[in-house]
Amino acid sequence: MLKELKREVIVNKVNYTITEIEKMAEYVASSGLFGVKDKKQAVALLLLAQSEGLHPMTAVRKYHIIQGKPAKTAETMLAEFKQVGGKVKWHQLDNNIADATFISPDGDEIRITWTLEDAKRAGLHNRENWKKYPRAMLRSRVISEGIRTIYPQIVFGVYTPDEVIDIVENQSANDDVVEAQVEDESGNKIEKEINTLKNLGLEAIVKDGWIKADGKKVYEKKELLKKLGYQYFPSKKIWAKKLA
What we know:
By secondary structure, this protein is an alpha+beta fold. The chain is 50% helix and 19% strand. The chain starts with a helix and ends with a strand.
């Protein structure tokens, strides 16, 4: 009995030393499984697993590394949601629409719908996966948004592989906007600032020689605003910049 107990403890061990994690990371990275390409990515993934109380190989199965960022498949999110008592009712699922109601373990409900038109507005429809598997992609988006909204404990800020690609591409586009702003010294200063904020999905308010960045996305664009020379004023809770 004692031997069996010791064996169970070893099998279920999740608190590894950094040396053990680095050794496991070497094997994971050399295998090339699930998009993990180097040891640093593997170490980060295994540390994430340890923080969630997961066995390292469970994490490798649950998470994929997409362009250096951890991602969970929609199937994993859905499975974990159901494991804690969540439920999903599908109203429609085809190549044009995915429509489902998500019910949390506490009984809260929310209905999420994604259509091909939504994908077009988001600039997703021209991607290869969306062309080949529109139903699966719509399903993935509905699952991720539904669970993220009603039971965020499952995702902890982690997105599906397709969403991660979208985030990375948007970040690259925003970085291009910043570089263009820094390098372009011609044209009207105010108009250029307004257009820059517009390209970032923000509104510009010009008053008394200052320009203020406004809109729902201000917080998530704060690092880009810093690069553009904007300052945060805590007393007014605004990001603004003095126009020369």
